[in-house]
Amino acid sequence: MNEYKLLTPGPLTTSKKVKEQMLFDRCTWDDEYKAITQKIRKQLLEIAGASEETYTSVLMQGSGSFGVESILNSVINKGDKLLIVCNGAYGERIITMAKYIGIDYVNYHTEYDKIFEIDEIKDILNKDKSITHIVMVHCETTTGILNPIEDIAKISKEYGKILIIDAMSSFGGIPIDVQKLSIDYLISSANKCIQGVPGFCFVIARREKLLKCEGNSKSLCLDLYDQWKYMDNDGKWRFTSPTHVVAAFSKAIDELIEEGGVLARNERYKNNNFILRKMLKYMGFEPYIRENLQSPIITTFRFPNLEFDFNDFYNYVKKRGYVLYPGKLTETDTFRIGNIGEIYEEDIKKLCGIIGDYMGGKKS
Ligand SMILES: *Cc1c(COP(=O)(O)O)cnc(C)c1O
User: Fold this and answer.
1) Between the N and C ends of the chain, which has fewer C-beta atoms within 10 Å?
2) Separation of alpha carbons 54 and 202, rounded Å
3) For ligand 1, atom 6: residue with the closest CA
4) Class of the CATH domain delimited by 24-258
5) Is the C-beta atom of 64 inside 6 A of ligand 1?
6) Model confidence over 224-255: pLDDT tens digits?
7) Running DSSP on this structure, what letter comes out for residue 287?
8) What is the CA(32)–ligand 1 centre distance, in A?
9) What is the pLDDT of residue 132?
10) pLDDT tens profile 156-210
């Protein structure tokens, strides 16, 4: 197999040192291992700008969706009602989860290249007083659109709702001040902007709210409250923890701090994304999302012409060391390029050179 770098939004390209942490087998109940878990939990709060008095963090086995479902399943009770603000496939997944769990919900929908209207959200909340919780995806990885987290946080606070943010593909790569925004639950996973490998997700939760969730869960494995209580004792995970992934993640956080924290990482991602969009536009690729709504995480591009064969293009680029991502839209022909992970300006320029060659007619 030829080696390649991932330009996908998780799993993504990780550093050699992050991968090297997985060469040693660690013991789950050993004090040194438990200390890694506790250190990670503390560092995540720091990254989120959340104080330990007001917030706590919980790590949960499984991919990001397991974490989203654990929140929905553990914090929303009978008699509660959830407003789902949806403009992409991850918002749709939340709707599917709500159906499975049997949550009473309202779906506020916009087209995938648009964001919500503040007045429309307020109108829904004014008319339906039974809504207790609001959930929204921050960066909709489906398209790369960045939803205005500040606006939804402001409305949620004004109306006294419990706010859940799926910041899966933005946390660590875009500054989010959880405490200042008064977010109640924020979820992300190991294999996105913190640049770890896949295997667990994590929730930043407001203590006061999570404390009230005892006994809510209809699932044993996805009981966020139980997971928290168990882990909070001394850092031991309830059920087998993904030891290799946790060790790699701890290294990934150290590297985030070494890079200069979220602000510095955000600058690198923004620069990657800016160069990518500029050079691809020059080659005839139009982004699907308007520039002012575009995240610095992943970009959706329209096919440049009717003859464009994505599979052929994908294989050409892969052979030369980079893996792209198919589109996730049904009605428009698109593909996606992620620019997060151990990806630097040199990579983006190299990629654009490869794409330029392909577009120039070099096809094998
Ligand atoms: C990656 C991602 C998820 C979780 O997806 P998994 O496949 O379960 O890891 C959820 N929401 C968003 C916005 C994501 O980018």
Assistant:
1) N
2) 17
3) 64
4) alpha beta
5) yes
6) 999 999 999 999 999 999 999 999 999 999 99
7) B
8) 30
9) 98
10) 999 999 999 999 999 999 999 999 999 999 999 999 999 999 999 999 999 999 9
**What b/e string do you get for 197-228 counting C-beta neighbours within 10 Å, with b at 16 or more?**
bbbbbbbbbbeeebeebeebbeeebbbbbbbb
pTM of the model: 0.97
Atom of ligand 1 nearest to the CA of 167: 13
Q: What percent of the chain has pLDDT over 70?
A: 99
Strand locations in the chain, DSSP E?
5-6, 55-61, 82-86, 105-109, 133-137, 139-140, 145-146, 162-166, 185-189, 200-206, 298-302, 322-323, 325-326, 334-338
Task: For strands 145-146 and 162-166, give the pairing.
Answer: unpaired
C-alpha span between 27 and 354 (Å, rounded):
45
In short, whether 168's Cβ falls inside 6 Å of ligand 1 is yes
Query: In this predicted structure, what is the pLDDT of residue 362?
Result: 67
Predicted local distance difference test score (pLDDT) of residue 363: 64
The token duo for 257 is 């701090």
Domain assignments of the chain as residue spans, ordered by start: 5-9+259-359, 24-258
326-342 burial by CB neighbour count: b if 16+ within 10 A, else e? ebbbeeeebbbbbbbbb
| CA 62 / ligand 1 centre spacing (Å) | 11
Nearest to 340 by CA among 4, 2, 3, 8: 8
Would you state the CATH architecture of domain 5-9+259-359? Alpha-Beta Complex (3.90)
Pocket test for ligand 1, best of 8, 63, 297 (most atoms within 8 A of CB): 63
User: Encoding tokens for residue 319?
Assistant: 């052979």
Instruction: Please name which of 168, 106, 164, 169 lies closest in space to residue 136, comparing C-alpha atoms.
Output: 164
Please, are residues 9 and 140 in contact by the beta-carbon 8 Å criterion? no
Phi, psi of 42 (to 5 degrees): -70, -45
